[in-house]
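Notes from hallway chat w/ T.B., transcribed later so I don't forget. T.B. wanted the structure written out for a chain they're using in a teaching module, and asked if we could keep both sequence and structure tokens in one place. Agreed to drop them here.
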Amino acid sequence: MDTPYVNYFVDFNHYDMGRVPGTFIEDKLNLKYSDGPFNIEVFLGDPTSAGGYFYLSGAMEVLEPYINSGKLTVRNKMIGINVTNVSDSEPEKAQAIMDKILAEYYTDAKLDAVLCENDSIARGVIASLEAAGYTEFPIITGHSRTKENIKLIKDGKQTMSVFFGYRILTSKTVEMVDAIIAGKKVPVNDSVNNDKIEIPAFLCSPVVVTADNYKEILIGGGYYTEAELEE
């Protein structure tokens, strides 16, 4: 996209990739109205990924006030520039990190939530919790809606996954193209800069997938069949 010859841009809002699960945790723990304190751990993917910056910024917009007030506690103190990163987002590496966190900080404390940047990390965190004997799981977030993780959501082990559906982008792109052809106002809600020009953009909001709505969103949307999620 490093060109001045772009009229419009459509994508998902990557800042929302973190803000949405942050808000989900806020709601599930009733942070606005409960006294707490609650314990949370934060896992990002590979430190070389630019997406982690947007993810953490979006999530911390929601959660940082509660951390600052003491209502949320990151017991391993790994937050901000020292946030826990998982190289290549590999589940095995996430599991090893979570093993150490559980052994050091949660032998006699309740873990209430784990903010995971993606589904791969969530799988590693869940494997660690299972190995530690957990049968009731904390809130665990993710994104990508991989088949393995939807099964974990169905089983009550992962709480949610942030879904970026390509059909949402396709539908919005068609809508924008139709408006251009018809000479109508093109729907935009933001802008992006590609170091050449400021480009009018429509940034779509991601969708939260849970055990309550995965059938409607993923099966009804044609991304999976029921049989595929039973395999």
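Follow-up for T.B.: Residues 180 and 186 are 6 Å apart (CA to CA). Might be a good example for the class.
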